[in-house]
Design goal:
The complex is a heterodimer. Chain A is of the alpha+beta class. Chain A has one domain (3-96): Arc Repressor Mutant, subunit A, CATH 1.10.10. Chain A contains six helices and five strands. Chain A has helices at residues 3-6, 10-13, 47-56, 62-73, 77-93, 100-104; strands at 17-18, 23-27, 32-36, 41-45, 98-99. In chain A, the strands form two sheets. In chain A, strands 2-3-4 form a three-stranded antiparallel β-sheet. Chain A is globular, with a radius of gyration of 13 Å. Chain B is of the alpha+beta class. Chain B has seven helices and 21 strands. Chain B has a nine-stranded mixed β-sheet with strand order 3-1-2-4-9-8-7-6-5, with helices on both faces. In chain B, strands 10, 11, 12, 13, 14, 15, 19, 20 and 21 form a nine-stranded mixed β-sheet that branches. Chain B has a three-stranded antiparallel β-sheet with strand order 16-18-17. In chain B, helix 3 (169-178) packs across helix 7 (318-336). Chain B is globular, with a radius of gyration of 20 Å. Chains A and B meet through strand 2 of A and helix 5 and helix 6 of B.
């Protein structure tokens, strides 16, 4: 992951995400699988990333999701914000999520 | 006394069930289509999706199979370059299996009809191909998830046995029957998610017994197990008394061969998606709905079905491993009850 991806992106943090219709995800015991039905590709997320996606899927902003997850995991908010930005950037690049700003734009 | 592999074909219709399909056909098939469709069923039947099977001549099959636009999904040849099996998909015609040794079969796109042009072999041989390769695809088209596994039942619970090809799952299933389990399926297990449960639909009441296993069992135990349908150089095909009910999957055992772990060792396993998806029986159909169904079933298994590895040593004794698994599975079922 490049350095700028791991930085907190305030614009990104203010947006919420949604899963496109062609993307489904299911939780396994220690992994979440995200399936892109258009490409047929499976993507694996570790439990923390899977939990992040689960929270984000509720329509909250990334910042609100980060607050909730920071409380859950007992981690500094800034760390979680960086992680969530990194995850969402990766998922956006793979076409597995859309942000509300991307949708509008 | 060998059971008849087939009866004369004619106007009579035969009925049976497997993989959650209610089957009706114009031919008899031991272990699969044995009830006379004109008589009331001998026992209450589970509900299932309807699928008809018909013997047709090659011309009739051609009429249902437009060659244009067909896409080859699979084309297998042996080392000498001889074609073994070609599977094609057509947007309207469905799926065609063309196996020079076993015949041609066309499965309708919705899995509701199978047209069969058998090869010249004894009936039990082409029917083994029909049952082992073609019928599971029909079940998948009806929304079942087919897993490469064998299964037995203990009371109201099903125990699944997963191994690589020729990895010993049939032998293990047969030896579990000797320990008191009931036969559910050999080689292909049809799964369905129902809420929080994973259901296992019984397969055809047929199993393949390798000659080495038959020798180990001895003629008396083999006769007690079931009736011989046919044999080739590798194995015998026998019909078995089977579990008629669709039951909950209660435990899954992955059979591993290892020299390092003692024979019969059973360890808990947290199955990842690649392990489970890797044992999908038929990956030919890749529609979004079926892919989602597959993911649903396997994620539910990963989260709710106790899963274990059972180790077989090279000098394995299937009967003793079956005993270990039987004892272990009873504890798992007892703990879950």
């Amino acid at each position: 992951m490049s350095e700028d991806k791991s930085m907190r992106d305030t614009t990104l943090l203010a947006s919420s995400v949604r899963l496109p219709e062609h993307v489904v995800h299911r939780a396994f015991a220690a992994e979440t699988v995200v399936l892109n039905l258009q490409t047929g590709q499976y993507h694996g997320l570790n439990p923390v990333a899977g939990r992040m996606l689960g929270v984000l899927e509720n329509g909250v902003t990334m910042q609100d999701a980060a607050r909730q997850l920071a409380a859950e995991y007992g981690q500094p908010l800034e760390t979680i914000e960086e992680d969530i930005c990194g995850l969402c950037t990766d998922l956006l690049e793979r076409g597995l999520i859309e942000t509300d700003s991307a949708k509008e734009g | 006394m060998p059971a008849p592999a087939s009866r004369p074909r004619g106007e009579r219709r035969w009925r049976g069930g497997a993989f959650g399909l209610q089957l009706e056909a114009d031919f008899f098939a031991a272990g699969l289509l044995e009830e006379d469709a004109d008589r009331p069923a001998g026992h209450p039947r589970e509900s299932g999706r309807a699928c008809s099977l018909a013997l047709v001549c090659a011309d009739e099959l051609e009429a249902h199979w437009p060659l244009e636009q067909a896409r080859v999904l699979c084309d297998l040849h042996d080392r000498a370059g001889r074609r073994l099996l070609t599977i094609e998909e057509h947007p309207e015609g469905g799926y065609q299996f063309d196996a020079p040794a076993y015949g041609r079969y066309v499965v309708a796109r919705d899995g509701g009809r199978i047209l069969c042009v058998p090869g010249d072999q004894p009936d039990w041989e082409w029917q083994a191909f029909l049952i082992g390769q073609v019928l599971p695809l029909a079940a998948v088209l009806h929304g079942r998830v087919a897993m490469h596994a064998s299964a037995v039942s203990l009371g109201d619970h099903v125990i699944g046995l997963v191994a690589e090809s020729r990895g010993g799952k049939s032998s293990l299933a047969i030896n579990l029957i000797r320990h008191g389990a009931a036969f559910v399926a050999d080689d292909v297990v049809a799964l369905e998610r129902a809420g929080e449960r994973i259901l296992v639909h019984p397969g055809p009441r047929l199993a393949s017994v390798r000659h080495a296993e038959a020798d180990a069992l001895g003629p008396t135990a083999l006769q007690h197990l079931g009736a011989l349908v046919g044999r080739d150089e590798h194995e015998q095909r026998v019909t078995l008394q089977g579990e008629p009910r669709t039951l909950r999957l209660a435990a899954l055992y992955f059979i591993e061969r290892s020299e390092e772990v003692s024979h019969g060792a059973i360890r808990e396993l947290e199955p990842g998606p690649s392990l489970l998806l890797g044992h999908t029986f038929s990956n030919l159909v890749r529609t979004p709905a079926l892919r989602v169904g597959q993911l649903d079933v396997f994620s539910q298994i990963a989260r709710t079905v106790p899963t274990f590895t059972a180790t077989v040593s090279p000098d394995s004794n299937a009967y003793s491993l079956a005993g270990s698994i039987h004892e272990h599975a009873l504890r798992v079922i007892g703990g879950a009850a």
